[in-house]
Amino acid sequence: MNIQQILNTAEKWRSNNIEKATGVVVVYDNQVAGWMNELRDPSHWQPGCVAIDENRKIYLATGGDDQNGAKLWRPATKEESSKFKGKL
Questions:
Q1: pLDDT of residue 30
Q2: CB–CB of 53/24 below 8 Å?
Q3: Between the N and C ends of the chain, which has fewer C-beta atoms within 10 Å?
Q4: What does the DSSP assignment read for 32-86?
Q5: Is the pTM of the predicted complex or chain greater than 0.85?
């Protein structure tokens, strides 16, 4: 999955959930995994989740493991954003 597909998935979800136009949409494995009004508590998400805010800013859930969740959300670099592939 590339970054454009991730952004399209998040934007399509937002258009179908107008009441959640702000905040972040979390995408994992080509599906919307959830929504939050603000980015918080990465331990509730698996590493590899991608969060997209209403301004199309991208954050990655990194560190940790599938059982205990991610350690942190960090902004994706431009290079990372252009190279998303596989299970995100």
A1: 85
A2: yes
A3: N
A4: EEEEESS---GGGS-TT-EEEETT--EEEEESSBTTTB-SEEEEPPHHHHHH--S
A5: yes
